[in-house]
Amino acid sequence: MRRQRFICKSCESNSDGYGGGMYCERCYMEADKIKVQLMGENEELKDKIEFLKLCSPSPTTSSTTSLAGSFSDVVLIALDSEPPLPVQAHKAVLVNRSPVFRAMLENEEMEESRSGTVKIADVRYDALQAFVNYLYTAETCLNQNLACDLLILAEKYQVQHLKHYCQKFLVSKLNWDNALTTYTFACCHNAEDIMDAALEVITDNMDKLTTQLEYVNLVEKDPQLVIKIYETYLSKQVNTAACRNPSVRRDSSSGSGIGDGGGWSDGC
Ligand SMILES: [Zn+2]
Fold first, then answer.
1. Residue 268: which H helix or E strand, with range?
2. What is the Å distance from ligand 1's center to 5 Cα?
3. I need a labelling partner for 42 at 20 to 30 A (CA). Which of 115, 195, 251, 261 fits?
4. Per the record, which residues fall in region Disordered (predicted)?
5. What pLDDT was estimated at residue 260?
6. Cα of 19 from ligand 1 centre, angstroms
7. How close is the Cα of 38 to the center of ligand 1, in Å?
8. How far is the CA of 18 from the centre of ligand 1 (A)?
């Protein structure tokens, strides 16, 4: 008996009829991929709306700088700029976007609450300005330096939406050359998504690890992070071995496990 043939509605090729007989396999898979991507984008938009929904003062202008400047009741100061430069903002926005600002600005015992001035050390003026703008708009144009600066601020002031945004950007920029420095940075600032992604890149290139200058620095400065790299690598090896050959177990004593030159990887 001959199988029924269909014409794909998208590319008009002969097909086996996927998606209720409408598409060829390739177009069907492609459409599926786009659907997943759109669902992801949709989720991101929902998060962004949630983030922005929190009680903003009504915008009187489309310019965020003048929005933040109009009737502002709090000033943030980047102490590292010379002279220290102020960024104007509204308490209502800061306390709604950040639990740390809430604790600081709603507590009359706090100097910041009384003076309406928040002094922030170790931050460039540009980064502070971008940070405040993000609290109003959930948007910023990132480069690697700015993403690092904003991630630090997002962690410090617990702005999860921004932290996630910066992590996603920095993960997208990961490569072998920057993996170790990015890993160290992520560990310092509790950025788990970046840590995992960087460890993935590092453990995929273990043969080159010790050739990196950063590796030598890391061994000296933070040996715990180096141990974490080797632990991740080992558990990855064990998992790979177990997938390829179910008889290989963590406690394998057959001599076909880790450390014998990888002989187990052949022929299974
Ligand atoms: Zn097709």
1. none
2. 13
3. 195
4. 245-268
5. 40
6. 11
7. 20
8. 9
**79 phi and psi, to 5 degrees?**
-65, -25
- Please give the single-letter amino acid code of residue 244: R
Q: 68 alpha carbon to ligand 1 midpoint, in Å?
A: 51
Is residue 63 in a domain? yes
Which of these, 64, 68, 109, 112, lies nearest to 90 by C-alpha position? 68
Expressed in angstroms and rounded, the spacing between residue 2 Cα and the centre of ligand 1 is 21
Runs of H (alpha helix) within 106-175: 111-115, 125-137, 144-156, 160-172
- 189, 106: one domain: no
- How many Å apart are CA 206 and CA 55, to the nearest integer? 49
Kindly report the length of the chain. 268
Q: Is residue 265 part of a domain?
A: no
Tell me, yes or no, whether 88 and 27 share the same domain: no
CATH of the domain at 95: 3.30.710.10
Task: Report the C-alpha gap between 172 and 182 in whole angstroms.
Answer: 12
Q: Which domain holds residue 17?
A: 6-53
pLDDT at 144: 95
How many A from CA of 35 to the centre of ligand 1? 16
Same domain, 19 and 84: no
